[in-house]
Amino acid sequence: MAKSPNIGTVQAMSWLVCVLMFLAMLAALAGIYETHFVGAGATFGTTGASLSIIAFAITSHLWVRSLSCCMGCCEK
Q: In this predicted model, what pLDDT tens digit does every residue of 1-16 receive, in sequence order?
């Protein structure tokens, strides 16, 4: 029979993933600011600006999903 993993280790890894996803979301938010407002004023419709919004949407979605696992709501 396989030994079950230590629940404390699993919880610590879950929190680590949650924190890393939060930092990735903040980096994506900084990317939105950089591509839209730094430089020649407010610019919209460029490829970089569109990709930064997509990156923020994906990372915020993944962060919210990892947050639910941090709170113990995900399936184990």
A: 566 667 778 778 888 8
